[in-house]
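A further point concerns the way the authors explain their paired sequence and structure data. Showing the layout once, in full, would remove most of the difficulty. For illustration, here is how one protein appears when written out as sequence plus structure tokens:
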Amino acid sequence: MVGENESTNREAWSENHLGDRDSLDLIGAQDELVKSVVETGTPTIVFLINGRPLSINYAAAHVPAIIESWYPGQEGGTALARILFGDVNPGGKLPITFPRSVGQLPDFYNHKPSRNRSYIFSSREPLFPFGHGLSYTSFKLENLRVEPSEIAPNASARVTVDVTNTGTREGDEVPQLYIHQRVSSVTRPVLELRGFQRVHLAPGEKTTVTFNLTPESLALWNEEMRRVVEPGAFDILVGTSSAKTEATQLTVSAK
């Protein structure tokens, strides 16, 4: 169990109320503790207690499983025990991005296309992307389609994808819907989350997940600060995280 607490993760507003840090690494000798345990050869799981993303690079590279608990509260021990003994199958997804270092900040999935630079001795890819999360089973997303494939600016479309539990345990998956407009009058993020659904599936079970894309889902604020849907091509992406998606295309016509 490693991480931080409310005394080392808070807003600093005076010399007797510190809490801001210039690093996102684990405090003190916690990395050395994890390394020492891993090097014994003992099967190891890291249980992370934290209120912000941490650059846990060693654990991510050497530990088979990391359980993100945030601040779990008084029943945290019970919840952890149920997960570790397999009484429940976790299926949560990260609501933020985990950077590799503090030098990657600000780090978020819905950045503009111009933010396309890397680092000399590292990568621009996050340690864990927005929407990431694993469980004790595995899932496959396939047969992504948009109907109709061309709509008017005031019309809607339906996005469907088949989700299959390909593992040996029942569990939850959270398919996530993202969009990207290829050309527009103002710059748009590379991805924008427009929906998600949590589905529970038995081993081998398959279901179809449906999302509705409305004009509000496709609209942008133009230069006149009006909320409009601009004609053009949209990439429609569905996946298990912001970094693991399948894509198809939707066309918004000028009429």
User: Anything to note?
Assistant: The first strand starts at residue 2 and ends at 3. The mean pLDDT is 95. The longest helix spans residues 30-38.
